[in-house]
């Protein structure tokens, strides 16, 4: 039998890996799976922090029983977040441990009733309330809209651990390595950014407000609900979240295009080449039909420059580009330098929509919108080079 994973002397990780699920929220691809993390504090009051996804019942109960044994109960379940991948086993826990107290804020408790009809044994905590577990003390902070209205984090004062719920979480299963110093950090930084940009990204302002609220806490470990536990480099993820939630991009450009027959792709390639010749090394070119928007959005979050090109399809945008920009609008993308170009065959249409998009977001337009008929001729390519140069100049300002 594998040894239980200790986060510290009496705190255990009781997470499960999910390698079966194709799409997170039935929307975002999981090529590397996802882990649902839950934690036990084995103190005078035995406390569980969040549960896991509904389908993981057997494995999860087994892990809990291995730590607490068959004859002990659980005193508290801290419900930091009601999204089903964490609240999925609340009913099963209530059945198994009928005396368990369900700890949440006012909104959590309302949600528990509307999700499961649960009204008994709830324990409401307010901002800054503390629950004494014996050696450990949990203090609660609400973090509204990071990324649901009831979202909350629990700070353990004795060992200075932050149970951060979905904040600082990442996609990717925990393949043996559970802690940041046991895993490939670059991989998890990428999957954390994809999780942030896809799931939390719309709520940068709320993340910044949470930062202000938690800024005086001494945080030694961050225990999120997905991905590795940060015990060696907690400051690294705090820094990344701060940057991403301020929409601060690095020097680099994402070029994304929608094409049927390759003309729009050809233009994207020539812009990419011109940008690189101006000395920018981080240039990523994506075909919106091929790469899932989840990955494109993640790179858009990473870099400061963005160029979008679309052929005209039935008088409007090529559908995969339309879908991508609607997600970007919804996520409130801002603070980018954006170039746009359209291609068309007769009366056009894609560029008009791209202009509407740029006008709807809080971003700087590079050079001017370019409309190119069918295949790009020499003068069109020259205009594209000017777009590339202007974008690079703005990136470096
Ligand atoms: C299915 C289809 C629909 C199109 N619809 C329009 C249109 O409504 N208006 C227009 O001006 N051009 C239209 N075009 C022309 C393309 O936008 C134009 O040929 C463009 O250069 C194609 O770029 P691509 O080679 O990157 O696919 C259409 C082309 C196709 C194949």
UniProtKB/TrEMBL annotation:
Transmembrane spans: none
Coiled-coil spans in chain: none
Pfam assignment, any one: ODP
Listed SUPFAM superfamilies: Flavoproteins, Metallo-hydrolase/oxidoreductase
The Flavodoxin-like domain, residue ranges: 253-392
One GO MF term: oxidoreductase activity, acting on NAD(P)H
Superkingdom to which the source organism belongs: Bacteria
Family: In the N-terminal section; belongs to the zinc metallo-hydrolase group 3 family.
The name this protein goes by in its record: Flavodoxin
Taxonomic source organism: Thermohalobacter berrensis
